[in-house]
Design a protein that fits this description.
This protein is an alpha+beta fold and 409 residues long. It has two domains: 169 residues, Thermophilic metalloprotease (M29) (Thermophilic metalloprotease-like, 3-Layer(aba) Sandwich); 192 residues, no CATH class. The protein has 13 helices and 20 strands. The strands form four sheets. Strands 5, 6, 11, 12, 13, 14, 18, 19 and 20 form a nine-stranded antiparallel beta sheet that branches. β13 and β14 form a beta hairpin. α1 packs across α2. The two termini are 38 Å apart. Bound molecules: zinc ion.
């Protein structure tokens, strides 16, 4: 069934109030595809109702990105122009609430040379990163999704009702129904996640051990005193609680960069730079990915691991029970926002300095000294097999079960 206006309004309100939690007087930057201009209007209006001072929309367009990548020179695409830098600089001063509504066609970049794509991404990210670091922890942001026809067709090829089916799935994962109070449901959901995170934080685990029949056999060391976080975050400048990802099911931390051993076997395909890596495993020695095997996308996986110094090390470990509504949907969304909330995962690349005590005020160099990984990439891959065992080990050698058969022990 097509989505009603009532549902769309509820969704816009949830994104603005519960997600980004826009406060009176704040500037909002909304990033959304041109095709979704009607929903953009609803979100924008909701921001103003919440007291936003000004809402700026940054329109995205698959067609524009695709044609640029097909025809423009790599050098041209890679350069960040002075006006773009000025805009980024302005952002570090305004510290706007940022709302992203994703709806990209997962195949938008098909036919584009993947090396060109990663080279452009690599050099732009290097220029943008200092600005990104400068606003981290100092602004609220939220990412949510809106199904486009092409995205829906990727998930349900050939289905006439593909968009409706993708809507059904998205609404299930963000807990919106015609007759419920999604704000109250989100409160209960985030309370549950925070309770689990508090339990983990009280355990004082120094490492995690993963085992699964598919070949996963892996140990990773955790940073002493680093927090497990989940669901929400706090803007340190104003103390406002916000929920960066809708949906969100995970509890995560950053492990010590360069301190893990063994093999992780992926249980779901990974969509990276609009291309698929499937049937893969990654083996770590002395904390670095030393080999990887993929049934599909071997070159791509190798490219990813070699993007920079930190790309072969882990930046995140996350716990998600297999009962997650995303997992229950039973299909690949081709969008990390959903796919990473399906089951337990790890991420190669950039870690989260905010998991360190006082982490937001640390420079990246200081965070690195304490074990946080640094990279221009952050790519999640799913390791949450249905039989996954995860044990927590303390410095004194005592062990407590965290996950059994893919869910909380
Ligand atoms: Zn994650």
């Amino acid at each position: 069934m097509p989505v009603s206006e009532n549902i769309l309004r509820k969704y816009a309100e949830l994104i603005v109030r519960t997600g980004a939690n826009v406060q009176p007087g704040q500037v909002v930057q909304l990033t959304i595809a041109v095709e979704q201009h009607e929903f953009a209007a609803m979100v924008m209006e909701e921001c103003y109702k919440a007291g936003a001072k000004k809402v700026n929309i940054e329109w995205t367009c698959d067609m524009q990105s695709r044609l640029n990548f097909l025809y423009a020179e790599e050098e041209t695409l890679a350069s960040v122009l002075p006006w773009e830098k000025a805009k980024l600089q302005q952002m570090t001063e305004d510290l706007p609430c940022r709302i992203y509504v994703v709806s990209e066609d997962p195949d938008a970049m098909n036919g584009v040379d993947p090396r060109k794509l990663s080279a452009v991404m690599q050099s732009r990210a290097t220029v943008v990163k200092p600005y990104r670091n400068a606003i981290e922890g100092k602004h609220q942001w939220a990412i949510a999704a809106y199904p486009s026809e092409k995205w829906a067709q990727k998930c349900f090829p050939g289905a006439e009702d593909a968009v409706d089916r993708l809507w059904d799935a998205i609404l299930k994962t963000v807990r919106i129904r015609e007759d419920n109070d999604p704000v109250a449901e989100w409160k209960a959901h985030t309370d549950f996640i925070e309770e689990k995170a508090a339990w983990l934080n009280a355990q004082g685990f120094s490492s995690l051990r993963y085992r699964s029949a598919n070949g996963t056999n892996f140990t990773v060391d955790l940073i002493p005193g680093a927090k497990w976080a989940g669901a929400g975050a706090v803007n340190n400048r104003n103390g406002v609680f916000y929920i960066p990802n809708m949906p969100t099911e995970e509890i995560f931390t950053s492990p010590i960069a360069g301190r893990c051993e063994g093999t992780l076997v992926a249980v779901k395909p990974l969509s990276w730079n609009s291309q698929i890596i499937d049937g893969f495993s990654i083996t770590f020695e002395n904390g670095r990915a030393v080999s990887c095997h993929a049934e599909q996308g071997q070159d791509l996986l190798e490219q990813m691991i070699h993007m920079d110094e930190g790309a072969s090390m882990l930046g995140e470990v996350a716990l998600v029970p297999k009962e997650s509504p995303v997992n229950q949907c039973g299909f690949l969304f081709y969008e990390t926002l959903f796919d990473e909330n399906a089951c337990c995962h790890c991420a190669l690349g950039m870690g989260f300095k905010e998991v360190l005590p006082g982490g937001d005020d640390l420079s990246m160099d200081q965070a690195r000294e304490q074990g946080i990984n640094d990279s221009i990439i952050h790519v999640d891959f799913m390791v949450g097999a249905d039989d996954l065992y995860i044990d927590g080990v303390r410095p004194d050698g005592s062990v407590t079960a965290i996950f059994r058969n893919g869910t909380w022990a």
